[in-house]
């Protein structure tokens, strides 16, 4: 019988060390490995575990198969005053993403707004990290990326667009707005969670192979058909589909990467995926003074609205993730689930790197949400 | 008893003449009046009647009360290489919008991407018209505007953001993508339509004054509380709320116009509304060649997907509106509902302008959707 055991915390530095070692073991230069590890850590710190260390194994597979090039660095293929096209050269997505947002911010500081689009790229992790990259430079950032088909367009039977996330970051005064959403109603991870809970799905999340709304999570997972934000056509799902196309146009069509049905499934083959991204930076210094004050004011205006349930205050995009970051700081590290520790142990052995160490949680912590099962 | 009568069609030229005459009668210069009339006509031609001539009476009220200035023209308040801030000088929104998109396109042709934001503006009609303005110049256009509070943020009890629409246009080959959506689940007009049909609302459209999901259209209309795209928090309504904030940030915070709760209700007072807009233009000539081909290919890829119901093919944003435009061309004019003709007759009398003339529909037409009641 599994009983609760003391919480296990992995210091951020140790999680980074482990990921960097794994990536180096499959031939990635240290500089690139640190960028990838920091990208995945950022997701874990923000509580978005599905996009954090959870992805390390997949990244390592891509590198081993040669479907992504761990040593590659992107280059500028075409350049205008406020626009850049970047050839990702099949580098890891986060290397391409960081490079592009940096270029967009530099140009936006000169001209007010700038855009960098990339082709020949790979999965770039959470979009929010690039939003934060822009915020750190005092800019607004808009981020778009295409992904392999999983969203079923309104009225269609089959998936033809990806989860196609869009993100926006904007700086306030000691505060920030970070929106990072898939244009599907939910991500696959949420359906997996309902399966674990053995609960029916709400209507509007997924379809079965006949194109009917499906509430059985097991059937939904097998069919692999997510509905666009909004759900059914009656509930304006065509708007979510439209937003998915908007993302595809900016991230896939402008840079001339693969798009829609042309994008191969991730991990299914050694085929190069040729994903596209789009990064737009806007420097508020080129607009009416006081942007950051207004940003803070708008966020406070929303947070201070009377909530329906006094226990559940109104949150603005980024608030939940910031609370998670705060917990990681207080607890001195990240609380990974046992499943992640098991995967890491296997990776460490396979790659011949030092296993990831952890510490027992400090006595002050009582709100760590992750349940660790007793090791036998 | 009302029985079906022959369909009544108003030639586009006559509808324009009538609107221009009405606007001139309240002191608007002819040049401005033509821009406003064309904006409203564009909505009617695309079948978006709520945003067409239906708005003329409200515009005339604004002008009579002096809450908007029919003679004003906007000016550039601040300018950078790829960014402009426009002072709308309380002009009619469509005058400001047309001016801004024109500036954004001109700059984008030079630099790849450009942004024009406006403060001190008014309601600007359908966003799609500015998307089409960009398309005509071979550019992509992104359009954002704030509006008076009517959307209830997730978990809140009261409205704090407007319907905050976003639009995007992109040129294909003899084809175009025009997305134009409110970030609320639906617009108020749809709830009015359900009231007329005497049908319950689907869950996820509106709230009552207690903040509960409301399915009675009458109560929903009285409460004036729309839910964000997605609906409830469980169905990802927080994404729609986040998109509403994204629109508010770009259109309200960058230009320093009113925002959120600061925006007065439309028509409720003579108070100046000081709305804000944001227009982004992107010139595909600064990116990888062949954008228009890829755009057409992506749209065809979607339209050719196997539909769940063979009678209901997959549509891309803009297809329905283009079909409506086609019908107007075939029928030689616009088929307004009797209610609109009644309002026009009243306006003509009040303003002393020649009433709007109409013609009986040509015999070839049998698919005009609007039902005309027999005049007594």
From TrEMBL, chains A, B:
Keywords from the named record: Oxidoreductase
InterPro entries, per the entry: Mal/L-sulf/L-lact_DH-like_ah (IPR043144), Mal/L-sulf/L-lact_DH-like_NADP (IPR043143), Mal/L-sulfo/L-lacto_DH-like_sf (IPR036111), Malate/L-lactate_DH-like (IPR003767)
GO molecular function: oxidoreductase activity
Keyword S-adenosyl-L-methionine found: no
Keyword Oxidoreductase: yes
Gene3D superfamilies found in the cross-reference section: 1.10.1530.10, Hypothetical oxidoreductase yiak, domain 2
Family: Belongs to the LDH2/MDH2 oxidoreductase family.
Designated name of the protein: Malate dehydrogenase
Species of provenance: Callosobruchus maculatus
């Amino acid at each position: 019988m599994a009983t609760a055991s003391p919480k296990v915390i992995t210091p951020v530095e140790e999680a980074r060390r482990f990921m960097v070692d794994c990536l180096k073991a499959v031939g990635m230069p240290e500089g690139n490995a640190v960028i990838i590890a920091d990208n995945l850590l950022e997701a874990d710190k923000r509580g978005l575990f599905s996009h954090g260390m959870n992805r390390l194994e997949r990244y390592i597979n891509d590198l081993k198969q040669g479907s992504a090039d761990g040593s590659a660095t992107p280059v500028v293929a075409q350049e205008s005053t406020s626009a850049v096209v970047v050839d990702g050269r099949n580098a890891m997505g986060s290397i391409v993403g960081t490079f592009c947002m940096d270029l967009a911010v530099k140009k936006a500081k000169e001209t007010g707004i700038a855009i960098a689009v990339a082709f020949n790229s790979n999965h770039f992790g959470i979009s929010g990290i690039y939003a934060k990259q822009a915020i750190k430079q005092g800019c607004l950032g808009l981020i778009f990326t295409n992904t392999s088909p999983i969203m079923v367009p309104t009225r269609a039977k089959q998936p033809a667009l990806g989860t196609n996330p869009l993100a926006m970051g904007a700086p306030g005064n000691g505060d920030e707005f970070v929106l990072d959403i898939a244009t599907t109603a939910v991500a696959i991870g949420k359906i997996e969670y309902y399966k674990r809970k053995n609960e029916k799905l709400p209507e509007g999340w997924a379809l079965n192979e006949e194109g009917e709304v499906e509430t059985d999570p097991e059937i939904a997972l097998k069919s692999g058909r997510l509905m666009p934000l909004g759900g059914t056509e009656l509930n304006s799902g065509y708007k979510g589909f439209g937003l998915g196309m908007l993302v595809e146009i900016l991230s896939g069509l402008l840079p001339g990467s693969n798009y829609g049905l042309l994008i191969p499934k991730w991990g299914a083959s050694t085929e190069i995926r040729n994903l596209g991204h789009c990064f737009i930076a806007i420097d508020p210094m080129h607009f009416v003074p006081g942007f950051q004050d207004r940003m803070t004011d708008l966020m406070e205006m929303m947070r201070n609205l009377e909530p329906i349930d006094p226990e559940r205050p109104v949150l603005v995009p980024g608030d939940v993730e910031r609370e998670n970051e705060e917990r990681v700081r207080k607890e001195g590290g990240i609380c990974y689930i046992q499943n992640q520790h098991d995967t890491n142990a296997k990776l460490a052995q396979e790659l011949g790197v030092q296993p990831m160490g952890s510490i027992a949680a400090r006595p002050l912590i009582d709100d760590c949400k992750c349940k660790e099962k007793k090791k036998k």
